Structure formats: structure tokens, C-alpha cells
Amino acid sequence: MKEISIHPVLVFWLAIGWIGFIVLPWYGIEDGFFGLEWLLDGYPFELDYAPAAFLIAAGEKLWLAPLIVALVAPLLVLNRRKTEATYSRVLIASGGLGFAWLIAQGFGIGIRGYSTDWLVFLLGELGDRQFGMGYGGLLVASSFLFMLTQGIAARGAVNGDVFVVGTIGGIVAIVTIFVFFPITKMLSSAFSSDSGYSVLEFASKMFDDRLWGLACLSGGRCGAALNSLFLAILIGTLTTLLGLTFALVVTRTGFRHKRLLRALTVLPIITPPFVIGLALILLFGLSGSITVFLADVFGTQPTRWLYGLPGIAIAQTLAYTPIAFLVLIGVVEGVSPSMEEAAQTLRASRWHTFRTVSLPLMRPGLANAFLLGFIESMADFGNPLVLGGNFDVLSTEIFFAIVGAQYDQGRAAVLAMILLFFTLSAFYAQRKFVGRKSYTTISGKGDAGIHPLIPAGLAIPVLVIAAIWALFTAVVYGMIVYGSFVELWGVNNTVTFKHYVTAFSVRLEDSGIRWSGAAWDSFWTTIKIAIIAAPLTAIVGLITAYLLTRQSFPGKNSFEFGTMLSFAIPGTVIGVSYILAFNVPPIEITGTGVILVVSFVFRNMPVGVRAGIASMSQIDRSLDESSLTLGANSWQTFRRVILPLLRPAILAALVFSFVRAMTAISAVIFLVSAEYDMATSYIIGRVENNDYGLAIAYSTTLIVVMLTAVGIFQLLVGQVRIGRRTEFAPAG
Amino acid sequence: MKRIVSLIGALLFVTVSSIGAASADKLTYYCSAEEDWCQLMARSFEDATGIDVNMTRKSSGETFAQIRAESSNPKGDVWWGGTGDPHLQAAEEDLTEVYVSPMRDQLHPWAISQAESADNKTIGIYSGALGYGYNTDLLAANNLPEPACWKDLLKPEYKGHVQMANPNSSGTAYTTLASMVQLFGEDEGFEFMKALHKNINQYTKSGSAPIKAAGRGESTIGIVFMHDAVKQAVNGFPIKVVAPCEGTGYEIGSMSIIKGARNLEEAKKFYDWALSAEAQNLALQVNSFQIMSNVDAMSSDSAPDMSMIKLIDYDFLKYGSSAERKRLLQKWDEEVSTLPQ
Asked: Is residue B65 over pLDDT 80?
């Protein structure tokens, strides 16, 4: 007995593997696993729900049989010691081979028998088929994976730390499955045509005039790729400048209404997409309130100037400036006052100090803010859809290549490749630009100085710009709320609750509450998905951050690149590639809620990683070292020491992924299904239907829900202390 | 042998369980009409039969894309609504199932001829004629004459006032293009599109967007199906509907059963039900003004009177085929869309 309990972790994962093999249904269940209907419907003998062991016993799906060997072998080494070579060899062999076989059979045998021609050629027709793997397959796969990592750990990798090797293995596996695999699949479909693969076809799509045309220089229309690039650079620059302006106003001026400004900057982040676009149309469109007013006063002829580049640029600047602001405020605060004080002691003027000391120290922050604006603009789908006019951009072109009458998946993949190329180049350029110079200003030594105010010559324009922007935002949001209460905007301005009633009416019936409003279905789905996705994102993100900051292992750099990659991939690309990758076995999750959760987790994980890395680098290593010296293992250290210190990072990851799950549209629009419709895709449907009232009422409700949720998260995670510096102040 | 035994076993189980759990019947319903109509159809079918309906609304292009993407593993059962071309295309690509409904003798001949042209893989449920609508306020504000014919739209004074969808992304706009080609002949039809191009202020992505923009006062004239224009007028927007004097093309909104449907029986029940007068009368409740295919279905007073509209003899088989569509779209792309405005 005692000998078996030597390896509790191994026993655990073996048990998981066996449960997956002999208890849970091997294949995915069409009606949903958690409906549990399958339990009453002939389980475990009914072939659709049978566990693998029963399938093999019934003489079906015999290609699963080799897995038994890989599950039995580890049982034989349970009483061996970790240090014995047989122990690690058996685990590596059975884990590795089992996992490899699982993947090989999954890809080799699909819904129409063998899935590639050469397999048919080699082995003849199979005469059988299989659907996507279910929970049984999932458990067995994870069991094999962690068997493998335990074997590797037993051989002494990363000091034989089972927890660290296991998490590395786990994260590498899921990132490979949910980031690299779909992207590869998409890239390969860019080369496919009706008759196999063709480079010629690819080239003709790649160098299409609709992408790279320069006709706009001579009065025509430019290509979508160039439009996107130009727009993204413009938005990156504008949002960075505006974000810097606000960061300076909040930290370096005597401006008194800082809280108000902060509140205003949060609003666009929690606003569902294209609501800003709608409000702009209602204000500045051909029949917009302001346009009509100006036309009346000055007798000008109203025009459609809003549709196209100007409209998209205004909407995106409004929407993404807050992101730049949030990035830059940390940086502006982080520039140590000691440096600036030193400069001023050396008789530099305030202006000179700002230009030569403060500004260069903000360089990484500026580059980051630009990159974020650039990527967000590239990926934005809602605003160009509403305001685009004849200004085509890649994200909408991709969408209409897939859903339009032309239906051309190859073209969508090519466009997605170009988009990906742009964002990755920006990512790379940002790293180059920031370079390897040191920007560290916060050291262990106390720096209790106070930031100097910016020179007056700068302060006045900065304050004016901030005031105008704040006023503009206030007007836009005022219009949004107002718009949700009028009958038919611009035509019939009677105040009404009609839209809220249509969307969110509730009836009390004998059988309980009946959610009769049109929006409830998508609303509850959205909440459910957001609540599931948020903690998962935080967990995956923080564990990754822990590995990156606290452990060293071979291949760490590519590991980091892999986890950050999904950040540079626009949502549209993720959406397209997920459809291509996950509609067929072995992982068949399109049309389920799982695919939505997965897409959110991997889209937002990099934010969790970044937040985690930032906080963890502030926690001195001596804390974990003392914990380890006192005999705790790395898992206990992570849970008891590091995790409690990470509250701000946890909160950031939770809030961000929750909000994103409720406002994202670009990937979601491809992944929603009858059962799992999301709020944003429902709203876009209403907009398409000219039902602005309902769309705006729904969006307003979402904004309120998100504000509430953010509050609840704060309560759950606990008080977040930001001003660490004050703690050190007495010592300094 | 073993396979046969297990198959019989499985069949027994299915039969037994379906008797045991009749309430678990369900139907995955892809809908390409307007949201409220889709909702109403789904709920009414649930009420009429007790079958659970899972409905997704996407435009006909989106739905066709989805069905094609899912063809190796179909998720949907029945596809209802949306212009007929994608349905015909789906039939051509063998994505939909042959079904001859017992309700056929109650239908208008155009609905049946739609079915026959696609080997009974699709059927007409409603039809609507192409036309345009204009915003009366804006027309007056800009002192523009009232248009009545297709060729009126080419007048220089309408420059920047006309909106239509992009034929590449919208079935409606493709119908417009194909109608012009059939109405004026290919050469003159393309001359018309080129001249029209000069007056267009935006090619929208979705088919009914132009009339919605006109309703909100964001554009003056929108080329759309007339029932879409009527709907905007009924909703209170200042829209006047025009049936062009030269005659016009039309669409047949269709319905198909998806090949490999997981709930084939339920799909057939829906199919028969959707062709009944009772189900087709639901259209009026949601301000959909198409002409329904059941001869006994009621029509609205606001609906465009089909007998007053000159309809061309639209060749659905030819202009619905992928090859012809690709050719016309490419020609439009190369000869029309690249012209300066």
C-alpha cells in the first residue's frame, strides 16, 4: 500500500486515464454531455455513447485497442522508485506513444473513413468512420500527456519538478491545439483551390488589384490591404498621442476632475462594438442631428462625409484611446521622479526635462500603446461594417469572402494571411524599436519624489484637447442612452420603453418566470460563456506568467512567443481558422459553447500573461526561495505565496476577459450557432435590420451589466492596492 | 455480421428511446429571412408540433457558406427563407435533400417550377419583385424629380443619391445585375450598370441595407426588393416604393432540407407545415410583404400588387448556376466597379 502511494500524482492521472477509457463515452455526444440524457439511453452499450473499452469489446473501432497497452504499462511501474530508469522510460514511452497514437488515429480516420488518399491507397477502404472525440477521449489524452511529463520530470528535467514540467507540457499542448493548429490549417487552405493545391491560384488571390490597387491616388478606390494598413497606422498614432495627453493630464497637471476623466475613459472599453459607429451616424450622418442643425444654421448642403475613412477613424479613435491611456498611465507614473529631479537640479528647464528625460523613458509604453492601437484597428470589424462606405478594409473583406455570395474560403485565408503578416510585423517592429536598452527606473531604493508638472506651454493644449475629447465622449454616450428611449430615431422622437420591453420583457406564469423578451437567449448565453471563460483565462495566463518569470527551461523564448502569438492574431483570423480546424474530427466543437469559451480563453490569455508577468516581477524571488527552502514544493509555493500577492493581476485578467467576452465580435460572428448565440452577434443582426432602437437598448443594458460585474469581481478578489510607492515612503 | 447485429440493436434502441422520450424531438432550423419572422416561425412550429426548434438566423449567403463548410458533418436540418439562388446552388452542389411534399397541390405554379428546376431539392415559399424606394423628404429637399423607371436612375441629377448592394456580397444585388442583363440584353445591361455606377454613393455589403439607409435619411434612393421597401414605409420611414416601368426581375424565397440532416423526419414535418396557408399567414404578423407560395395564403394591403408589376421571364436555372454567376460577377468587377465615379 505504502509503495503505491509513492506517486500520488501518477496514480491520479492513471485513474483519470482509466476513467476516460472505461467509464465516460469516448465520442462527443450530439445532444451535449451535460444533458446526461445518454445515461438513460442505452449507456454503456449503445455505440454512440459507449466508452472506448465497450467499443473494443463489441468489436467496433478496433483502432483504439493499442491504447490499452499504453494504459496498462504504467501500472507495472507503480511500485518502482522515481530514480529507477525503468520508471521514467516506461512513462515516457507509454505517455508519448499513447498520445501520438491518439492523435494519429484522430486525424487518420474521419467521418468518411480514412481521411487522406494515401491511407486509403495503403490500407484500402476502411468501411467505418468516427466522429469527434468526447470527454472519454479528452481524459485519456490528458492522462497520456501528464504521464509523459512525469516521465520527463523523473529523468531530472527542471530539477525533477513534476508540477513545472506538467504545466509546461499542458500549456504547450493547448497552445499547439488551439493556436498553432488552426492557424496552420488556415494557411494551408490559402493554397487550396477546387482542384487540389495551387500556387498559381494563391498568387492570383494574393496580388489581386482589390487588395493592392493604388487607384485612390487618382480618384478611384485603393485596395483593401493598403486601406487597412493606412488606417491602422493612423489609429495607432492618434490613440497613442491622445492616450499620452490624458495620461499627462491625470498625472502631471493640477487638473481637478481626474476621476471623471478616468470614468470617461473606461466607458469605451466596456461598450459593445459599433455602438459608437451608430451614435456617430445618428449625430453626423446625412440626416444626423448635428448635420441637420448645421445645415439649418449655415445653409450648407449635408454630405455623406462620415462614410468611409473619416467615420471609421473617428469611431476607432474614440474606442481605442482608452486602451492607450491605460497602457500609458502606468508608464507615465512609472518614470521615477528621481530622474526628473536630477535633471532639474542640473538646471534643465521643465520643457527640456520633459523632452530629454521623461519622454524617452516612456518609449516602451508609447511603442506598446501604438502596437495595441494598430492591432485593434486592424482587427476591428464592427465600425467598418457600419461606417465603411466604400472604404474596404481587410477585416470586413474577410467576412464577406466567407459569408458573401462569392463564398471563397481560399480568398478569406489569403486575406487573413496578409492581416496576420501586418500585425506580426508591427509586433516585431515594436520589439526592435524598444530594443535592449534599459528603461528600468524603479529600483529597490526608495524614490519618494513627486512628479514635476509639465511645462505650461504643453499643459494648456493638453488640457484643451482632453476637455474636447471628454465633451465629445459625453455627447456620444448621452446620445446612446437617449437613442435607446426614443421610438424611431430621427423620425419619431417620442420617448418610449418599447425597445427595452421587446428585448427584456419577463412574464410571470404558473410554471414560473418566462423570459419572453427577444434578447434573453443571447443574453444568458453571453453571461454564461463570459463567466466560464474569465477564470479559465486568468488561470492559464497566470500559470504561463509564472513559468516565464520564475522558471528556466529549454525553449523558453519560443514558448513565450507562442503564448503571445494569439494576441497579434486578429479575431477575424481566429474565427476563420477555428471554423476550418474544428468542424471535423478529431476535435469537433463548432456549434457548441466550448468553441466560444476556447476562443475567448486564447484570445485574451496574453493579457493575463502580461499582467501576471508585470506583477510577478515586482515580487522578490527571495519570497519563493524561502518557501522552497522551508520544504514546500513549487505548487505549494505558487498557491500559498505567489498567488495571494497576485490579486491585481488576477483582477485585471478576470475583468478584461469578462468584458471581452461580452463585447468581442470579430471572432464570435463566425462561431455562434443556433444554441449559442452571443449578445454582440444578436445586436449586429438588429443593426442589419435597421432596428437601431433595440440594438442600442441592448448595448446600454450590457454596459450596465459589465459595470456591475466589474464591481463584483473587485469584491470577490479583494481590495486592489495600486499605490505601492506610498508603502515604501517612510523608509525612503 | 456483427455490424448488422449492432445496427439492429442500435435501431431498436433508437425506436424504443424515441417512443420513451417523444418530447426530445428537435429540429435545427437555419433561417435566412428577417429575425422576427424567423423567431415567429420557430415558436409557431414548436407550438403546432411540440418539436423543439433550434434556430439560427444568418443571411442566405452566410447560411450557404455554413452548410457548405459543414457538408462533411451537417449540423442543420432545414434551411428556410432567403433568396433562391443559394438554394439552387446548394442543390447543384448536392448539399440538399430531394423531397416531394404532399402540400404541393396547394402551391402557385412558380413555386413548383422552382422545385422542378432543382430536381425537387428546393421549393418556393415566397416571391418578391425587384424595384427601388426613395426617401420622399430627401427627394423634396434636394429638388429632385420623382423616378419611375430603371433608366431614370441614370440621370446626372441623381449623382451620389443612389445606393445598391455589392453583387459580390449580396444576393439581392446579384439579382439586380442578372435582371438588367435579361431585361436589356447583356451589352446594354452592362452599359446600364456602368452608367448607374456614376450615381452610386455606396455599394453596401448587405442586400436590404440601401433602403434602410434611405429610410433613416442617409441616402436618397435604394435599389432593393420591393417588399423590403414596403416594410420600411410601414415601419414609419418616409419611403415611397417604385415598380420600374420597364419591368423587373424577381426572387423566389426558397426552402431546402439539408443533406444528411440528423432529424430528417422533423425536417420534413417542418417543410410540410411551412407550405401550409396557416404558416404562411404568419408573414403578415411581422410586416413581411412577400407574395406567399400557398394559393390560400392571405396577402397584405400594403404588399406590392404582383399583377400590376411587369415581371420578366427570369431564367433561374441559368442565372442561378455557379458558372454564369461567376462570369457575370467577374465581368462586373472588371468592367464596372473599377470605373471612376
From this structure: no
> For B98, which DSSP code?
-
A111:B72 CB<8 A? yes
Which chain B residues are within 8 Å of A41, Cβ to Cβ? 13, 17, 21
Fold of B22-127+252-301: D-Maltodextrin-Binding Protein; domain 2 (3.40.190)
Question: Helix, strand or coil for residue B146?
Answer: coil
Helix (H, G, I), strand (E, B) or coil at A486: strand
Residues 197-226 of B with CB under 8 A from A: 201-203, 205-206, 208-209, 212, 215-219
Nearest CA in chain B to A61: B3
* CB within 8 Å: B58 and A403: yes
A2 — pLDDT class (breaks 50, 70, 90): very low
Report the candidate in A124, A140, A119, A183 with the shortest Cα–Cα distance to residue A22. Answer: A140
**What are A90-112's pLDDT values in tens digits?**
999 999 999 999 888 888 887 66
Of A41, A583, A689, the CB nearest to B35: A689
User: Which set of grid coordinates corresponds to residue A693?
Assistant: 432602437
Asked if residue B147 lies in contact with residue B243, where contact means CB atoms within 8 angstroms, the answer is no
Chain B residue closest to A672 (CA)? Answer: B56
Q: Which residues pair with B251 in a beta bridge?
A: B128
* The pLDDT of residue B338 is above 90: no
Query: A residues 43-62 near B, CB within 8 Å?
Result: 45-48, 58-60
Question: What's the rounded mean pLDDT across residues B25-33?
Answer: 88
* For residues A136-153, average pLDDT: 91
Q: Which residues of A touch B201 (CB under 8 A)?
A: 304, 307
First-to-last alpha carbon distance for chain B, in angstroms, is 71
Fold of B129-250+321-335: D-Maltodextrin-Binding Protein; domain 2 (3.40.190)
Q: Which residues in chain B have Cβ-Cβ distances shorter than 8 Å to A677?
A: 56
B105–chain A nearest CA distance, Å: 32
pLDDT at residue A290, rounded to an integer: 86
Interface of B with A in 102-161 (CB under 8 A): 138, 160
CB of B325 less than 8 A from some CB of A: yes
CATH fit for domain A221-483, picks 1.10.3720.10, 3.40.718.10, 2.40.50.100, 3.30.750.24: 1.10.3720.10
Lowest mean pLDDT among A209-218, A529-538, B241-250: A209-218
Between A326 and A149, the higher pLDDT residue = A149
Establish whether the linkage from the previous residue to A44 is cis, with ω within 30° of 0: yes
Question: Within a 10 A sphere around the Cβ of A182, how many other Cβ atoms?
Answer: 24
Cβ-Cβ contacts under 8 Å for B230 (sequence gap 6 or more): B241, B289, B302, B303, B304
DSSP A112-153: TEESSHHHHHHH---------B-HHHHHHHHHHHHHHHHHHH
Q: Mark which residues 520-549 of A lie under 8 Å from B by CB.
A: none
DSSP A275: H
pLDDT at residue B24, rounded to an integer: 57
The answer to whether the peptide bond before residue A586 is cis (omega within 30 degrees of 0) is: yes
For residue A404, the chain B residues in CB contact (below 8 A) are 61, 168-170, 205
Contact with chain B for residue A587, Cβ under 8 A: no
Residue A296's pLDDT is 86
How distant is the Cα of A367 from the closest Cα of chain B, in angstroms?
Answer: 35
Q: Candidates 3.10.450.50, 2.60.40.420, 1.10.3720.10, 3.10.310.40; correct CATH number of A498-728? A: 1.10.3720.10
Residue A507, chain B, CB below 8 Å: the answer is no
Q: Who's near B99: CB < 8 A, 6+ residues apart?
A: B120, B121, B257, B268, B271
Q: Is ipTM beyond 0.95?
A: no
